[in-house]
Design goal:
The protein has 128 residues and is an all-alpha fold. The protein is 79% helix and 0% strand.
Length: 128
């Protein structure tokens, strides 16, 4: 998992360098790398939508503080990522906006947080 994380980080650094060096968007190399990042961005949106759906499926009351917190974060991340996709922004902007404590460095970190929250929600449901 660490090797995979390292690879993703290096890929994001490479994309940033491509932006820094003004590589044209129609360059085949940049297109291939951008496609990978767009897939990750879309995955982040999809995972957060699944998290919201799970909140509904588990019938967590609308005024429950846990639900309010999870919903707020998920909706914010969907909004930020969707906006970045539309504008063609660098994924670093997403991670910087969506990291509450600066520990999130990559899109995979954000996706991992959503997956962990789904597990937490499953555990919460089992104990309820």
């Amino acid at each position: 998992k660490e090797k995979m994380q390292e690879l993703v980080t290096k890929n994001e650094q490479l994309l940033q360098k491509l932006d820094d060096y003004n590589i044209p968007p129609n360059d085949p190399f940049k297109k291939a790398k951008t496609f990978d990042v767009k897939e990750k961005m879309q995955e982040l949106v999809t995972k957060n939508e699944q998290l919201l759906q799970k909140l509904d499926d588990y019938n967590i009351p609308p005024n429950d503080p846990y639900r309010i917190n999870v919903q707020t974060v998920a909706r914010f991340r969907i909004g930020v990522t969707t906006d970045a996709l539309k504008r063609g922004q660098n994924p670093n902007k997403i991670t910087s906006q969506c990291s509450h404590d600066g520990s999130v460095k990559t899109l995979d970190d954000l996706i991992g947080e959503v997956e962990e929250e789904m597990v937490n929600m499953d555990n919460r449901k089992k104990t309820a």
